[in-house]
Design goal:
membrane, transmembrane helix, ATG33, transmembrane
């Protein structure tokens, strides 16, 4: 049973670390590169595709982390149920639910006439959103690493 708990903690921490890294790379590399595209229409289509694909993968990583930390907490004996598992699970849940925040709407993909200023504004707001999501993920990842270090698991 202790190895199962340690495996759950490891999977949760690793998933949260991957989530943080992917969010950071989106905010720092991928999304800003869209502003270098020659026109607004390809940038618009790539932004929509990137956000949809990234959202699916990031949400999956956050949910795996959430479930792993909750399972580790549930399987732990009463004396070893550390609250950091719940706090880290809560942060992973916030990261998973971050896509549900209103105000992250993108223009429809079927739009033929795309305004460059609108796309630039959408790119910048997406970059800020991903930076915030990466910060939330990093906070959870740091809690998980410190918690595992403290557990000695």
């Amino acid at each position: 049973m202790p190895s199962t708990i340690a495996a759950c903690k490891f999977v949760g921490t690793t998933s949260l670390g991957l989530f943080t890294g992917a969010s950071y790379s989106l905010a720092a590399l991928s999304i800003p590169a869209l502003l270098d595209l020659p026109s607004a229409k390809p940038a618009h289509h790539v932004l929509i595709s990137l956000k949809q694909t990234a959202s699916l993968h990031l949400r999956s990583l956050a949910v795996v982390s959430l479930l792993s930390f909750n399972l580790a907490y549930a399987l732990s004996p009463a004396r070893a149920r550390h609250p950091y598992l719940l706090w880290t699970s809560l942060v992973a849940g916030l990261a998973a639910a971050s896509d549900l925040i209103p105000g992250q709407s993108l223009p429809s993909q079927n739009q033929d006439d795309v305004n460059g200023e609108t796309v630039e504004q959408a790119v910048k707001s997406s970059q800020i959103f991903e930076q915030a999501r990466a910060a939330i993920g990093f906070a959870g990842f740091a809690m998980a690493v410190v918690g595992i270090w403290g557990d000695g698991a």
